């Protein structure tokens, strides 16, 4: 039985964890939101994609496991059935080609 003068306070603290730096041969970075199932993936090529309807559990696992391979996570979770993908940035290939030529071309 609760005393009439007793007040019960409940609070929820949400801690957002940022993934630690990891190396990958394809993926530059992945930002995830485990509450909404959103992932933003930046590839080393410069392409940036948004993914919706990603497993919230998978997003939380990526944040909680700093040694997980970004490429493995990307291939398993962003290419799964039911995932909605939207490209939000595509690199300018002519600039990349010009940089490549100046770096590697022999005069």
Largest sheet, if any? 4 strands, antiparallel
Radius of gyration: 21 Å
Average predicted confidence as pLDDT: 79
Oligomer: single chain
End-to-end C-alpha gap = 89 Å
Question: How do the SSEs run, as a string of H and E?
Answer: EEEHHEH
Helix amount:
25-40%
Quick summary of this structure?
The chain has 107 residues and is of the alpha+beta class. It has helices at 56-64, 70-78, 93-104, and strands at residues 27-33, 38-43, 48-52, 84-89.
Question: Could you explain how this protein is built, in words?
Answer:
- Strands 1-2-3-4 form a 4-stranded antiparallel β-sheet, with helices on one face.
- Strand 2 and strand 3 form a beta hairpin.
- It has a domain of 74 residues.
- The chain has 107 residues and is an alpha+beta fold.
Describe the secondary structure blueprint for this structure.
Elements: E1 27-33, E2 38-43, E3 48-52, H1 56-64, H2 70-78, E4 84-89, H3 93-104
What are the key terms here?
alpha+beta; 4 strands; 28% helix; 107 residues; four-stranded antiparallel β-sheet
């Amino acid at each position: 039985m609760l005393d009439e003068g007793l007040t019960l306070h409940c609070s929820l603290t949400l801690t957002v964890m940022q993934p630690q730096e990891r190396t990958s041969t394809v993926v530059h970075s992945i930002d995830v939101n485990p509450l909404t199932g959103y992932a933003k993936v930046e590839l080393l090529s410069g392409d940036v994609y948004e993914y919706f309807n990603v497993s919230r559990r998978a997003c939380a696992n990526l944040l909680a496991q700093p040694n997980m391979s970004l490429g493995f996570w990307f291939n398993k979770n962003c290419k799964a059935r039911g995932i909605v993908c939207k490209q939000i940035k595509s690199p300018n290939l002519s600039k990349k080609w010009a940089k490549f030529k100046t770096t590697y071309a022999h005069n």
